[in-house]
Design goal:
The protein is 47% helix and 14% strand. The chain has 14 helices and 13 strands. The protein is globular. Bound molecules: (2S)-2-hydroxybutanedioic acid.
């Protein structure tokens, strides 16, 4: 039977990661997968995470199952972090991808005929999971390649085609892959159209704290939850707590009958994983319920965020000098881990093959892969292929 299986296409992000590892050149720069790196290229365990793990090790007396929705302390702490208050339905999930998957499973239970609207471009896992689940999808315009900014007009125009019962997938902050984000005023326009359409918003929130600040990055989500009758939020702790491999995420649902939604979300966990992973969730709730640990985590996250803004400014300036053009000014304006540079796939390949600079084929770069030491090398390589 195994020979009935078709070979699976390589995942573009993970394939690039492997190519980077296999590249023997001494000078190479990884701007691929969305993982934070410090100036030395390391992805450190955050101070508060290390301390929380020590406390858990000292205090934890059992490893028996948690509840199907996950540990209530974690769920409440994540509701406060993301929504600013407790309430609504929630389940812990294996990472942000697990939350996106459970959200789309829920959509399929509610309305198998729903069309899921995705920004063009979006994170490759979004269309992949939708197709796997046999749901329909459509695209809305998002990015203006000429300016490197948001195509608000195109986005709003496309969203007027959304029908009742459809789902619109939105990136809550730090849009992956472009790095171009709507302002709060622009979010208000989006909310107005979705309210009129009677659509469900599904917000993917993987980078809270990487954009304009922990609270600021939650504002669009809170804003949509206040204005729309029903919202799903798939959130990840991989990046802002730096606990990628612990697979820690949450799916929140606002609106409807909370008990009924909660029962269905818990059943979805039972059907796929029975109980969600607990270690990362316990680290997160330990940090978020301990004032000193919470303050230290916020301080370290803020250093990471401001460091990345400094790298953005450095790269924008270096590109202006190396390429003698202002066209890359948007790199300093974008927020979060990513920017789409607007190179052709051929140019992105040439910077990799000829200069050892690894970026995705759509020229998405992970800003955290830059350092003030490698920025001149990266800028020179980009100038060389233009
Ligand atoms: C990315 O976009 O690089 C990350 O979200 C990692 C992943 O799972 O693709």
């Amino acid at each position: 039977m195994f020979d009935t299986l078709k070979p699976q296409p390589a995942d573009s992000i993970l394939h690039l990661m492997q190519m980077f590892r296999d590249d023997p050149r001494p000078v190479k720069v990884d701007l691929g997968v969305g993982v934070y790196k410090d100036a030395e290229g390391r992805t450190p365990v955050m101070r508060a995470v290390r301390e929380a793990e020590r406390l858990i090790w000292e205090r934890q007396e059992t490893k028996v199952y948690t509840a199907m929705p996950g540990d209530p302390m974690f769920l409440a702490a994540m509701q406060r972090l993301i929504l600013g208050a407790e309430g609504g339905a929630a389940i812990a999930t294996p990472g942000g991808t697990g939350a996106v998957r459970q959200a789309l499973e829920l959509v399929r239970m509610m309305n198998p005929d729903a069309t899921i609207w995705l920004s063009n471009p979006t994170w490759p896992n979004h269309p992949a999971i939708i197709d796997y689940l046999g749901l329909r999808r459509a695209e809305y315009r998002y990015f203006n390649a000429a300016t490197g900014g948001l195509d608000l007009e195109g986005m709003l125009e496309d969203l007027t085609r959304v029908r009742p019962g459809d789902v619109v997938l939105l990136h809550g902050c730090c849009h992956n892959p472009t790095g171009a984000n709507p302002s709060l005023m622009q979010w208000a326009e989006v909310a107005r159209i979705l309210t009129g359409a009677g659509a469900l918003a599904l917000i993917d929130l993987a980078y809270q704290g990487f954009g304009d600040g922990l609270e600021e990055d939650a504002l669009p989500t809170r804003f949509l939850v206040q204005r729309l009758p029903e919202v799903l939020v798939a959130a990840s702790c991989s990046k802002n707590f730096g606990i990628y491999r612990e697979r820690t995420g949450v799916l929140l649902a606002a609106g409807g009958d909370p008990a009924r939604v909660q029962g269905n979300l818990a059943a979805l966990n039972r059907l796929s994983i029975s109980f969600p992973p607990d270690h990362g969730a316990r680290v997160v709730s330990t940090i978020l319920t301990d004032p000193a640990l919470g303050a230290d985590w916020r301080a370290e996250l803020e250093d990471i965020r401001t460091g990345m803004i400094g790298l953005r400014e450095g790269l924008a300036m270096a590109l202006r000098d190396a390429c003698r053009t202002d066209r890359f000014g948007f790199v300093a304006e974008h927020r979060g881990m990513f920017s789409r540079l607007g190179l052709s796939p051929e140019q992105a390949e040439r910077v990799r093959v000829e200069h050892g600079i690894y970026m995705l084929g759509d020229s998405r770069i992970n800003v955290a892969g830059l350092s003030h030491a490698n920025i001149p090398v990266v800028a020179a390589a980009i100038a060389a292929v233009m």
